[in-house]
Predict the structure.
Amino acid sequence: GDSVTQMEGPVTLSEEAFLTINCTYTATGYPSLFWYVQYPGEGLQLLLKATKADDKGSNKGFEATYRKETTSFHLEKGSVQVSDSAVYFCALSRYSSASKIIFGSGTRLSIRP
Amino acid sequence: DAGVTQSPTHLIKTRGQQVTLRCSPKSGHDTVSWYQQALGQGPQFIFQYYEEEERQRGNFPDRFSGHQFPNYSSELNVNALLLGDSALYLCASSSSRMRGVRQPQHFGDGTRLSIL
């Protein structure tokens, strides 16, 4: 069945460092791909999404490109801030906005001032 | 415009008891999905309700059941609670009238359920 595998954490970086969190997926066809973020004590917020191959999703300085050939959707940010400390989840959904979402196990990111 | 609201925020139960969690979807949304997030894990899909019926179900036992009301709000019921049911339970809502993924699912802040 469909699945998502993402880089295990925790990841600790200094402020202004470059961030990459790896994510690969297994699915037939062309699922939609997402990155969600979860701040302490809160639910999930959609960070960015891509719906077809070669699409680039971006938001708040974060970017991820849908790579069909490598089945990947790596999250990147050029200069992280302390406020980016959170847990990041890579996810996929097959058909529409109402379809179930399959999540990776999450990567905890901590940014040192 | 209120987003997805869940109640209660925290709950403590003992093994064998039953629990009911509640969710009110975002205004304009008619579809509700429930997810279980164990500590340190990603959310796992439990089931989805639309038009007051269960439309999709994940790999969860029959102890997990739900309901959707005419106003689109939903309940998640868990019977015969086990220690392993301790988790954050998330509700997400979406609109069947919005095709495609331009309008993603919106998540509530969850209910933290602890089983003693």
The first strand of chain B starts at residue 5 and ends at 7. The interface with chain A takes residues 4, 31, 33, 35, 40-45, 48, 50, 56, 58, 90, 92, 94-96, 98-105, 107-110 of chain B (CB under 8 Å). Chain B is about 0% helix and 50% strand.
